[in-house]
Amino acid sequence: MDLSGALNLIGLLIGVGVVLVAGFLVVLGMVLRRGNPYPVVKRYPEEESFTDPVNKKKSKFPSLEDKAALTCSVIVPAYFEEERLPPMLEECLHFLEQKSKTNSDFSYEVIIVSDGSTDGTVNVALDYAKKFSVDKVRLLDLIKNRGKGGAVRLGVLSSRGKCILFADADGATKFADYDKLYKALIDLMKQDKYSGDVEQFQGIVCGSRAHMEEEAIATRSIFRTILMRGFHLLVYILTVRGIRDTQCGFKLFTRAAARKCFSNLHIERWAFDVELLCIAQALKIPIAEVGVNWTEIEGSKVTPILSWLQMGRDLFLIWFHYAIGAWKLIKKSD
């Protein structure tokens, strides 16, 4: 076969491949469009209540649809975190306790969501609930693993705060940076000329490690740097623009914004942050990004290759489902 014939054959194969892929996507789209376009949140009866470790009494969690009963709810998703959770909770609760003592208007709760953990995570959470009382520390014990996004969502749906912060169990972000996020939230309210209560305002503030990127690249392998750059590029092309760090586990939502975003969330694993921000941008919810103090903590559940592949797959699924109308947004007003 001469060069011209070879090129024609390659062109034909590429054409056939494109047609097959396009056909597959069309068929897949038709199948997906027949499903429910809105999320269905699975919650077992055992997960609707929390236990007071002092008197063993069970009480039902409140609903995100209820009016807020305190200033701030902190949601901590925890999966096999018996070792990393105690130092994180020590720092978190010390900060919140000091803040509540110096500011009589500030009240808080911490909801630890054990995502199907079978180690000592549940016992650690109950120890802190016993020490601080269930009015301040509660355990949501999921009987089946949902993934980080699923755990965060169920914690948010069970919260009482005007503002809701989700924070990783590793304590990588210094908890005092909560004040920076809250100030940025107030700035968003001023920019929007909003004068009502923060609970009803639609706003999100993302903690960010983007300011540390050059330092991180200097210590990270070339392979991991390529993976990171590739992921950021996919995020920009397929879903979220204008946010440099979508994955930092330190994000603050107003109660109204949390209702809108988490009621629309489909992705329950690593890429759930991206879908939340994608939803927020589609609903025109103001978003700010604030640099935070962050330290890498050993014991991460993220495996460089597998986790990045899973997140890449989820990014495509987010884009594809919304693009073909298989997923739709609930746009009810508060």
How far apart lie the N and C ends?
68 Å
- In DSSP terms (H or I, runs of 4 or more residues), the helix count works out at 10
Poorly predicted runs of 5 or more residues: none
Structure class: alpha/beta
Mean pLDDT: 87
Helix content: 40-55%
Q: Proportion of β residues?
A: 15-25%
CA-based gyration radius: 22 Å
Biggest sheet details: 7 strands, mixed
What is the multimeric organization of the chains shown? single chain
Strand order of the largest sheet: 5-4-3-6-8-7-9
Give the beta-strand count. Answer: 9
Written as H for each helix and E for each strand, in order along the chain, the element string is HEEEHEHEHEHEHHEHHEH
Any idea what the shape is? globular
Give a verbal description of the structure.
By secondary structure, this protein is α/β, with parallel strands linked by helices. 45% of the residues lie in helices and 15% in strands. The strands form 2 sheets. The protein has a 7-stranded mixed β-sheet with strand order 5-4-3-6-8-7-9, sandwiched between helices. Helix 7 packs parallel to helix 10. The protein is globular and about 80 Å long. The relative contact order is 0.14. The mean pLDDT is 87.
Topology overview:
Layout: H1 3-33, E1 49-51, E2 58-60, E3 70-78, H2 85-102, E4 108-115, H3 121-132, E5 137-142, H4 148-157, E6 161-167, H5 178-191, E7 204-208, H6 213-219, H7 222-238, E8 250-254, H8 255-262, H9 272-282, E9 287-291, H10 304-324
Parallel strand pairs: 3-4, 3-6, 4-5, 7-9
Antiparallel strand pairs: 1-2, 6-8, 7-8
Helix pairs in contact: 7-10, 8-9
